[in-house]
Amino acid sequence: MPLLALTALAFVPAALGQDEGPCDPNPCRNRGTCDQGACTCYSEAFSGERCEQWDSCDPAAILCHNGGVCANGRCHCADGFAGENCETNLLVPDIPEPVWWPEDDWLNRDNPGSTGDWEVCNKRMYSKGRMCPGDFRGCRFSQIQIRVAGTDTVYTTTEEVFAGTGDIVFIRTDGFVCRIDEQTDGTCEDYEIKVACIQGCRVENDFDYNGNDIDHVPSVASWQECANLCLSLEGCQAYTYNLNNLKCWRKRNAAGRRQIASGVAISGYPCPMEEEPTWALVYRHDKTGGYFGDLNIRTGVNKDDPDALLYSRLDELDTLSADGAYRFKFVDAAGPIVEWYQTSNPTTASDIEGYVPVAVPDPETFPDRAYNGDFGGIGLNDENKRNYALIDSSPHHTHWWMSLGNLQPWNGLIPGWAGSGTSRVELYVQSKNVCPREKGYCVKADESDQNSGVIKFNGVDGDDWRSQKTCLNLCKLHPGATGCEVVWDQDNRGCYVHTQEVAEGNRAENHFCWIFSRCE
């Protein structure tokens, strides 16, 4: 898509004092943002060198919701909202109310011990065999209820717990903790909890998620940008965007949810970054089938028999995997499941690049940590190692954990994650996105521009795989979406969803387009 006619207008202010930089403090009025001394006004309702001029409306007659601003007798809506009073949320669908867990009981998985009372559930604990009742693996939650076991008084904040029991406690992304070393008397009560699991994502006008802050980011242009910043930070499950000072507060949860005065803040739970992956088996080694010998896993082994004890489709990685990065899942029969991303192809590259952990066990359990550091992906071994295995987690070192294409055993087994070795390993890759990415911005069938029905989600450069994945999944969640688009390194950078006819990408630079009618 070419440069859009954006609602925000830029004005260059007069020279400002340089003591703290031209934008500190922010010289822009009425929610304007500052960049290198230039003010970008919040909407077309504002004008002037510092966005100080605006055409106000009678709030008794016209009330604009969700960050909208009234000018010339009508509401000018923020990105993602529409309607006469900006009351319609275009970004996310309605979702059901939170589901409380446990439904008919309370979670009390831990009695106070030497370190405290830990009422937490998460996937990492589950992978290490420490499961919560009902096979629960934790969830994003919007509310929490806390009480001392066997009592009736229910607390919902850390302040209430302290007032009621005197214990200093913490609400985390995965539950609730009372630490012995934080208590003046060196003891913790035995607590039990319930959590209200979030189903999907939400945007709430005039709500604040009080407390449970991870950090805050200043000078954020919109609540959509704030939601995207939350998605990019591990452990962030909720956010509050202050409409007055433009600060984005990234939060561990939304347990402090409270309604506030109109026009002050927008809060929400960010939409998931991705859908549940579909996996394709690309490698198996069961030691009862022997070792690979002169079988080359890079050209395929028993590809027509997915039940074979020795099996490889690693030569098809680029046709099977998603655009931009490989998401791998390594299954060790004697150890945990390991999931990660990397951008380098392990069948061709010895230097491992683009590693991002997804579900990686406790680093201290990785046997190669003392020699080569924490696990960071897999790569093609140096020539002098290939008489042991073709691929492993330390391609430039003599150790060969997490190895593929083994030509010989190690202590009669296969080096996997577990330090004792294993009898069977499998490698999966996330299947290729069945929604093909096209170069250029999205255009109509007659190759003309489509600038109607376009909604901007954020202003993030879309030239890396993580921003593209985030954008595509935001677009998929939008009702009536016909396509998706990312732009980078130009003024209209960001993520956009199309809601009217689009037919193809026009091969323009600095753009990628997805046409949803071509998705399977």
Q: What structural keywords apply?
A:
globular, 4 domains, 6 helices, mainly beta, Hepatocyte Growth Factor, 520 residues, 5-stranded antiparallel β-sheet, disordered N terminus, 6-stranded antiparallel β-sheet
3D architecture notes:
The chain is mainly β. It folds into four domains: 99-197, no CATH class; 202-269, Hepatocyte Growth Factor (3-Layer(bba) Sandwich), CATH 3.50.4; 279-430, no CATH class; 437-518. Helix content is 8%, strand content 29%. It contains six helices and 37 strands. Strands 24-23-30-25-26-27 form a six-stranded antiparallel beta sheet. The longest helix is centred in the C-terminal third of the chain and has 13 residues, at 465-477. The protein is globular and about 80 Å long. The protein starts with 9 loop residues before the first strand and ends in a 5-residue tail after the last strand.
Distance between the termini: 24 Å
Q: Please report the total strand number as a whole number.
A: 37
Instruction: Output the strand order for the largest sheet.
Output: 24-23-30-25-26-27
Radius of gyration: 27 Å
The oligomeric status of these chains comes to single chain
Strand content: 25-35%
**Envelope shape:** globular
Helix count?
6
Compact description:
With about 525 residues, this protein is mainly beta. The chain is about 10% helix and about 30% strand.
Topology summary:
Elements: E1 10-11, E2 33-35, E3 38-40, E4 46-47, E5 53-54, E6 69-71, E7 74-76, E8 81-82, E9 88-89, E10 99-101, E11 116-120, H1 123-127, E12 141-148, H2 158-165, E13 169-172, E14 175-179, E15 191-197, E16 202-205, E17 207-209, E18 213-217, H3 223-231, E19 238-242, E20 248-251, E21 257-259, E22 265-269, E23 279-286, E24 310-312, H4 317-320, E25 326-332, E26 337-342, E27 356-359, H5 369-372, E28 379-380, E29 391-392, E30 424-430, E31 437-439, E32 442-443, E33 454-458, H6 465-477, E34 483-487, E35 494-498, E36 504-505, E37 511-515
Antiparallel strand pairs: 1-3, 2-3, 4-5, 6-7, 8-9, 10-15, 11-14, 12-15, 13-14, 16-22, 17-21, 18-20, 19-20, 19-22, 23-24, 23-30, 25-26, 25-30, 26-27, 28-29, 31-37, 32-36, 33-35, 34-35, 34-37
